[in-house]
Amino acid sequence: MFGAGGGTSSYLEAEETDLVILWGSNARETHPIFFHHMLKAVRRGAPLYVVDPRRTKSAEWADGWLGIDVGTDIALSNAVAREIIHAGLANRTFIERGTSGYEEYAASVEPWTLAEGERVTGVPGRAIRDFARAYATAGRAQLCWTLGITEHHNATDCVLSLINLALLTGHVGRYGSGLSPLRGQNNVQGGGDMGAIPTKFVGFQDVLDEQIRAKFERAYGRKIPASYGKHVTEMLEAMDDGELTALYCVGENPMQSEPDSDHTYQRLTGLDHLVVQDIVLTRTAELADVVLPSTAAWCESEGTVTNSERRVQRVRKALDPPPGARDDVDLIALLARRLGSDWGNPTAEDIWNELRTLSPMHAGMSYERIDAEGGIQWPRPYEDHPEPPFLHGRLWETDPQKRGEPAPFTVVRHELPVDELSADYPLRLTTGRRLDSYNTGVQSSGYASPMRRGETIDMCPDDASSHGLAPGDLARITSRRGSVEAPVSIDTGLRPGLVFMSVHFPDEVDTNKLTIEATDPVSGTAEFKATAVRVEKVAEGR
Predict the structure, then answer these.
(1) Contacts of 33 (CB under 8 A, 6+ apart)
(2) Suppose 112 and one of 50, 79, 411, 453 were both cysteines; which one would form an S-S bond, judging by CB atoms 3.0 to 4.6 Å apart?
(3) Which of 76-80, 284-288, 437-441 is least confident?
């Protein structure tokens, strides 16, 4: 945010804040460790608000649940902003000191009255008003989100709409107040930090910046193209017209994690060459020309990991890998050697120390210092000079030189999901995770859990009844792209018209046969949260 690709706050701040918002996040099931940090604030008396189409396990803890219609997050954010402005609760001191673009933003939210917000989002106007005023008047507040915000075709605008609220109220740049994107997988934050983004080098340094690019060219002894690369969605699209004909896939399972899985299969099988490097034989690996067995980084390798509070921590090897499996670093170095570039046999610490010479925000993090402090949050440019646990404190500085560039408000427009509801597809399917399983099940389905029930189509009692379905009945779920079958489960936390499934058991129920490839043009994230479907009972004895 504001040039730094990470959450602004620490976990301790989540424990000590005065109000918590979970927007598009069922942290109780999908981020249970963070949820327990947050519960410390709740048990101290901090109100919890949950914005989610479903009344989730997280919402059961909430002082206020805003049961939003899928895909109307921007509309709700704009309505909340207008209420804050009209109630005289905008933080004018912070707005004038640390932001830009306020007047245009305020004009853009003016049409979003409480009545209009209720009409579009399905959230009662009184609930919007109470929520807006609670956030604006809290001494400190944490606004947290996850895939419920980012898995939409306008994901970037959804995130920007939440940033707008923090700027409007001054809930950023100070202890206890901040914006916290909860990362969907272990070390997602670290991957971005290390430059696994097509527009950035390590430390979120822009590829198009000539001075930065020259620094990396000197370090690597190679000319680097002055252009952005492709993100995953763009790579998949490039397979369609033959622009991309070979793929090296490391620790990723697109065959089961990408939307419209039938189309993904066509793309992957149409490649001239597919190499997969992974710890298990995934469905993607089964399609590969070459499979490179790698080690489980969490227990069979040395290195670092970065969590959602930007804390870099050491990972230590505890077990030897099985015969034939090699560390990712060794595999990549061997591949480089075969391609004519000998990198030697670098250790994880060697690579980390090289990184520190190139990424200013990591420069002060030696292995010795990380060990001594039990992990270090970035930025840490100097080894002996810790930074505050929160980001963007500069925005509160009275001295313009210290304050630097203001944080911009962004005008964002409400757009409905791409996959429209119709008479043929009258139900809105939203997908997500369950507590007992993980992503496509590669790392969790091989282990028993007393909570695991397999995949189901979750429906509210009214919808199940109107479709002639009872718990356990087999149903066919059909979208504009395909059909799957799953047993029915009743969930009283769902409202009429909304159904839910996960992607944890793709070998039994390939939910991503249903989902749409509509993607956010900036992040490349697909709209997994909004699929139009119909549900029918499968005849017995067919």
Answers:
(1) none
(2) 79
(3) 437-441
